[in-house]
Amino acid sequence: LSGLDPAQPYFQGTPIEVRLDKSDAEFVDVIHTDSAPTIPYLGFGISPAIGHIDFYPNGGKQMPGCGKNPISQIVDLDGIWEGTRDFVACNHLRSYKYYSDSIIYPDGFLGYSCASYDVFETERCFPCPQEGCPNMGHFADKFKGKIKNDFLKLYLNTGEAKDFPLWRYKVTVTLSGKRKVKGYVNIALYGSGGNTRQHQIVKGTLQPDNTYTSFIDAEVNVGTVTKVKFLWNNNWLNPTLPKLGAATITVQSGEN
């Protein structure tokens, strides 16, 4: 049984006979996309974990792409009717859009087991454990025999618009150079499955011999990495023309 952002009003905090619960089926997976409190945030979705596995994409409260201004949201690519629905209940409706995308991308939407979304943003829930990570959506039941805890809360990020799946990589860059500069470092990944756009790893003071780590939620599954593009830039013109390079770049895939 797959719960697509099960309703919060009249259901949250009620007995299990009234609402969706993991006792309702052999395997219950839930996608939470609108779990902010109903008052004052108009959250339509239930927030507690109620299934065998519960996915909280983007933290489960505010979905990327749902904060657009009303005009651009209503005059949507999918038409006025779809746009108006998205304006009224964009976060809530993301659950079925993620689910339909998950059918097309069986390797997408990996959920990382974590205490909270804030912890997910750190290095503590990465990479996947030995038994792997479940896939949010249609293929969640592949994880059926691997659940050890009473409740499994899973976190991931998605894109702002179709296609929604993102693949998570941890990128560690050690810089080389003569002196520190102010600026930013971007990285793009090239691989057997496709190439990513440039993603920013660090911004601010760039100190040679220092190591900087960041996560990339890439729009493609890169597959086997064949090349890494390193690009850095000054924040302002520097007449001394400082040079900066990468001594090492390590790319770790979340999946394996």
UniProtKB/TrEMBL annotation:
Reactions catalysed, as given in the entry: long chain 1,2-diacyl-3-O-beta-D-galactosyl-sn-glycerol + H2O = long chain acyl-3-O-beta-D-galactosyl-sn-glycerol + a fatty acid + H(+); 1,2-didecanoylglycerol + H2O = decanoylglycerol + decanoate + H(+); 1-beta-D-galactosyl-2,3-didodecanoyl-sn-glycerol + H2O = 1-beta-D-galactosyl-dodecanoyl-sn-glycerol + dodecanoate + H(+); long chain 1,2-diacyl-3-O-[alpha-D-galactosyl-(1->6)-beta-D-galactosyl]-sn-glycerol + H2O = long chain acyl-3-O-[alpha-D-galactosyl-(1->6)-beta-D-galactosyl]-sn-glycerol + a fatty acid + H(+)
Domain called PLAT: residue spans: 167-256
EC number: 3.1.1.26
Protein name per the record: Pancreatic lipase-related protein 2
Cellular compartments annotated: Cell projection, Neuron projection; Secreted; Zymogen granule membrane
Domain of life: Eukaryota
Broadest EC class assigned to this enzyme: hydrolase
InterPro entries: AB_hydrolase_fold, Lipase, PLAT/LH2_dom, PLAT/LH2_dom_sf, TAG_lipase
GO biological process: lipid catabolic process
Similarity section: Belongs to the AB hydrolase superfamily. Lipase family.
Listed GO MF terms: galactolipase activity; lipoprotein lipase activity
